[in-house]
Amino acid sequence: MNGFSSPASSSRLSEPGPHPLSLTAGCVQRGVEAGLHRGAQVSVWSAATGEVDVAFGDARPGVAMTAETSTLWLSSGKPLLAVAVAQQVAAGRLAFDDAVSDFVPEFAVKSKEAVTVEQVLTHTGGFRSVTFDYPAMGWDAAVAAVCAARLETGWVPGETAGYHPHSGWNVLGRVVEVCAGEPLGTTLRRDVLEPLGMADTWVGLPEAEHARRHDAGRLAGVENTAGATPRSTGMDQAAWTTGVRPGGNTWGPARDLARFYRAVLGGGAVDTCRVLPAAELAKLTARVRRDTVDRTFRATMDWGRGFMVNNRRHDAVNAATHGPTGTPYNFGPHAGDDAVGHGGNQSSVGFADPTHGLAVAVVFNGMCGESKHQRRMGEVLDALYRDLGLV
C-alpha cells in the first residue's frame, strides 16, 4: 500500500474541455498508484497549442489539486533571482565579474574575497558546505552563515565546479538588496513577478497569503514519499513558507512557472512586458561553464549564469554514475539542445525549449528519492512531447 487514501487521479483543465495530454496523465496516474506523489501540475505553452494547464490528483489529503493551487518549486525558482541579478547588471549597478565582497564586505573572509558574482551563478564559487537551520534561521542569519563560511580546500574559484544548493543564492540575494536598496522580496515582486503576470507567485509567502491559500484549499502539501508511508515535510506550514529564501522557497502554480519560460522564449519579454533586454537574457542562458565535473551531482555538466542548460550530450558519460536516466535534473529525452531552465529537488522542473517553441513546467507534491524522481520526471517529459506530436 502506498498510504494514499485518494482515489484514482483525475485531470482538470484551467478551462473546461478535453486536453491533449493523455499520455502525460497516464504517467502521473501511475506515479500516484506507486505512491510517488498525491498529485501534480503540468503547464505547457506553444504557439500551436496555446496554454494548457492541467492538474492531477490531490494537493493534500482530501483536497483536490487545481491549476490555481500554489505549489513549492524548490530550486526551480532560482532563475527568478538570476533575472533580478541581470537587471542590476543592465542598470549599471553591478557587473558579473565584480567581487561579491564589493557589495557584501563581510563575505571577504576565509579566502572568499575574490569570488565573483559570475562564479556564484555558475556554481564555481567554492562555499557549498554551509549549515542552514531552516525554518528557524531567518534571512539575515542565513546570509551571515554564508559570509562566515570558508573556501573549500583545494577549490579554484571559476574552475572547480559543484552545485551550491542554498549558499550561493542567499548571498546573491543580499547583493541584489544592496544594489536595489530595498528588501529582496520587494524587488522580485515588482521587477520580475508582477510585470510577467505572475501575481500568484511569491518568494516567501506573506503570512496573510499563506493563511488565505491554506484556508481556501489552494496550498499544496509537500510530502516525503521515499518510504513506505508518505509523511509531511512541514514545508507547507507558515513557519517554512513565509521565509525569504531565493534558493528554494518559491510558491506558485505551475502555470506561472511556464509563463516565466514564455518570457525566456521571448528574449526577456512575454506579451507586451519586457523584464530584461534580450542581450542580457542571453548572457544568463549561454553555456558559460562547459564540460566540467560537478562535485555535487557527480556528473559532467555545462551551466549558464543561474540557469541549467540541456546536458543530454553528457548522458553517455554520466550513465556510469546515474544509470539510464543520464544527467540528473535535465529536460527529458526530447528537448532541444538549446533548452534552458532549472529543476527543483525531487519535485519540479521549468524550462524553455526554443527548438520546439515550448515553455514547460511540471510540479509534483511528493519527494520520492533521487533515482525514482529522475525516472518519474523523464517519463512524464517523454510523454508530454509525445502528446504534443514532437517525437
Give an overview of the whole structure:
- The chain is an alpha+beta fold and 391 residues long.
- The chain has two domains: 11-76 and 186-387, DD-peptidase/beta-lactamase superfamily (Beta-lactamase, 3-Layer(aba) Sandwich); 80-185, Methane Monooxygenase Hydroxylase, Chain G, domain 1.
- It contains twelve helices and 18 strands.
- Strands 1, 2, 3, 4, 14, 15, 16 and 17 form an eight-stranded antiparallel beta sheet that branches.
- α1 runs antiparallel to α12 (370-387), α2 packs parallel to α5 (167-180) and α4 (139-148) packs across α5.
Number of domains: 2
Distance between the termini: 35 Å
What letter string, H or E per element, gives the SSE order? EHEEEEHHHHHEHEEHEHEEHEEEHEEEEH
Radius of gyration: 20 Å
Number of strands: 18
Query: According to CATH, what is the topology of the largest domain?
Result: Beta-lactamase
Q: Main sheet, how many strands, which sense, barrel?
A: 8 strands, antiparallel
SS content category: alpha+beta
Query: Which architecture name of the largest domain does CATH use?
Result: 3-Layer(aba) Sandwich
Q: Give the overall silhouette.
A: globular
What would you call the quaternary organization?
Answer: single chain
Proportion of residues in β-strands = 15-25%
As a percent range, the share of helical residues equals 25-40%
CATH class term of the largest domain: Alpha Beta
Low-confidence stretches: 5-17
Give the averaged pLDDT, no decimals. 94
According to CATH, the homologous superfamily of the largest domain is: DD-peptidase/beta-lactamase superfamily
Supply the number of helical segments. Answer: 12
